[in-house]
Input
Amino acid sequence: MTNVEISRLATKIRAVTGLTDSPIALHEPYFGGHEWQYVKECIDTGWVSSVGKYVDLFEQKLSEFTGARHAIAVVNGTAALQVALELAGVQAGDEVLMPALTFIATANAATYLNAIPHFVDVEYRTLGIDARKLADYLVDLCIIENGQCINRQTGRRIKAVVPMHTLGHPVDMDPLIQVCERFHLELVEDAAESLGSYYKGRHTGTFGKASAISFNGNKVITTGGGGAILTNDSELARRAKHLTTTAKVPHRWQYIHDERGYNFRMPNINAALGCAQLEQLPAFLAYKRSLAEHYMRALAEIPNVSVFREPEHGQSNYWLNALVLDERSTTSCEEIIEQLQAEQIYCRPMWKLLNELPMYRDLPTMPLSQSIDIERRLIHLPSGVKSPS
Amino acid sequence: MTNVEISRLATKIRAVTGLTDSPIALHEPYFGGHEWQYVKECIDTGWVSSVGKYVDLFEQKLSEFTGARHAIAVVNGTAALQVALELAGVQAGDEVLMPALTFIATANAATYLNAIPHFVDVEYRTLGIDARKLADYLVDLCIIENGQCINRQTGRRIKAVVPMHTLGHPVDMDPLIQVCERFHLELVEDAAESLGSYYKGRHTGTFGKASAISFNGNKVITTGGGGAILTNDSELARRAKHLTTTAKVPHRWQYIHDERGYNFRMPNINAALGCAQLEQLPAFLAYKRSLAEHYMRALAEIPNVSVFREPEHGQSNYWLNALVLDERSTTSCEEIIEQLQAEQIYCRPMWKLLNELPMYRDLPTMPLSQSIDIERRLIHLPSGVKSPS
Output
C-alpha cells in the first residue's frame, strides 16, 4: 500500500467509526444503562466487596444469556481459565494444547497450575485451532495408554485442548470435539473474547467441561476487571465456587478451609457494573455487527486488503474487527499501523505468537505456518461500542 | 462464664458499638467521603478498568501514608503477598516461615509459587511471630551453607520469614530482623490487616524487602477487592508493576511479554473507591482506637475476660478488637460465640491453625504451644467503623 492508500484507509476508518476529528481508541466501554444506579446502591448499602446481591444476579443473568447451566463470577479472565483447567483435571506436568496465536493469558493460566502449554496451529477460516491439522499432528505424536493421551516425545500426558475464539470468531467445534474424543482430551474453551458469539446456534464457552469469559475494560461488556467460569456440570460449578472463595467450608463462624483455594471472587461493586452492562449486551452486539458491515463495505474499495468475516458455521460478536492484508501485499502491518497511529487511529497488530516469547520459546510446538502467516497479515481495527453509529 | 455473664457481655458490646437493637456485624465498611464522586467520574469517563488516574493516585497516596517509597495496587492481598514473596526471591521448593495463627491467604500465597509454608509459633504480647522462640528453633534445625539457610531435616532452603501483624497489632520487629540477619532470611511482611499500624513509629509493611496490604471489604479501608505491594526498593517496585501487569514490555502497539507475569492489576474503579477511603483513614483509625478504649473500659467488670491491648512497642490500628478469655476460664470460645450469635452479635473465633487444615497438615511445623493457647482463648469482637460512636 502506498502512503496515499493508507491515508484513504484512515479516512474510511474515521468515516465508519464516526469519529472524524478525535483520537480513535481500539476499544472503549460504554456506560449508558443502569451502571450508576447499581454501583451507587452498592456504595449506599456498604455492600461493595465479597458478599452482595449483584454477584449472584450477575451469575444468574450470565447463565441465562449464554445458556450455560452455571456461571461463576471471578476476578478476571485469567483466573477463570486457570480454574476451568483445574476443574477439567489438568495437573502439574500435564501438557495443554492451545493456539500459539492468542493473548498471553491462555498460556499463563496453564502455567499457574504447573502445566505445560503445547502450541498448535490455527486456520484462516476462523483464526482458531485447525482441528484437522491437529488430528494429523497428534496421530504421529501421541499414543493412548490407559485412556490417556501421552506425548511420545516428552513422555508427558496431554490432558486438555483450549480453543480460543479469536477476536470473537467461533472456532469450528465439531471436528475439534472429535479430536478430543479420539485422543481422550478434555475441552476447555477460552471464551475470553467471545461473549455473544455462537457456534451453530450454541453459545461459545458451553461445549467443554468448563470455560472462561473475560470482562476486562476492552471486552464486549466490562466489570472494570472480571471474568467468569461457565460450566454445565453442577458438581464442577459447586467446586468452582468453592475453589474461588478460598475453599472455605460454610460455617456460621469457623474458619475452616478444606483444600488449597484461591481468593478469586468478583467484588460486588464490579458485579453491579456487570449487571448493568449485561442489560445492554444485545444492543452492543447489534452495534458491533453493524460496525463490521460498515467496515466491510467501506474498505472494499481499498486495494489488497479485506475485513475479516465471521465463519459460516456461526455468529461472531465481532469483538474486534480485523483488517487482512492480501498475501501479495508488500506493505507490512507495522508500516500501516505506524501511519495510522500517527493519525491517532490506535490500531494494533495480532499478539506476537506465544512460542516466540522468551519464557515460552522452548515448549512443545507443532509447525505453525498458518499462525505465522495470519500474525503477519492482520491488523485490529477500532471497534469500541462508544462510537456513534 | 455463666449464661448471665455472657448476656451482660452482649449488653456491653451493644452499648459500646451503639447498636442497641440491630444485628451487629464483625466489620462493615463506611462510605462517607468522596466515594460516589470518584466512582461516578470513572463511569462517566469510561475509565473503569486497567488504565486510569485513580490507580496512580491511590498508589501515590498509599506511599505517602505508609512512608513506603513505592506502592503497587493489585487485585487483592493474596496476590500482593504472592508477588512480594516472588520479589524477595522465593522459589519453588523453598520453605517460607510464617505463623500458623494467620488467615489462610498467608500460606496459600506461598504455595502459588510452589514454596512450602513452615509454621512457627506466636507470642502472647503481639499475637505475632515469637522471634526469640524462632531463633532457638532455627539454631537446632538449620545450617548456613553458602549464605543460605538450609533445613537439615528436609534439605530445603528456608528463604524468607513472613510476620503477620495479627488483627493490626505490630509484630516485635527488631528481634525478628536480627533473626533474619543471623539466618540469612528475607523479610516479607503480611500487613494485610495492619494499614495504619506502626512499630516504633514506622509503618508496618515498610521493614522487609516487600510487603502486602489488603483492601478487602472487611479491612480498615476497602476497594471492594484489592491489595497493594509496598517496597522501598525502586527496582523491585518496577518489577512488581511489570509482573502484575502481565509482564508486557511497554510499546506503542506490540504485544510482547518478556517473562511470565500475572493479571493482577487493580481496576481503576476499585482504586477510585480506595482514594476516597484513604482520605477518611485518619478518622477511621481514631474511631477504632476509641472503640478499643471503650471496649476495655466496658468489659473490665466482666470476670475472666479482658480486651487485647496493643503491644507497648507500637501503635495498632485496632482493626479487630479481641476478647481474651482468662486461662482459668472454663467456658469455651465456642460457647460464648454461640450465645452471642444467637443474640445477633456476629463474633468470630481466631482462624483455625493452618497446620491443622487437611492440605497443610504435613508441612514442617515448630512446637506451637502459644498459638494453640491463643487460638482457644480469643474472640474477635465487632469492630466496624460504621457503628456510631
Summary: Residues 268-299 of chain A form the longest helix (32 residues).
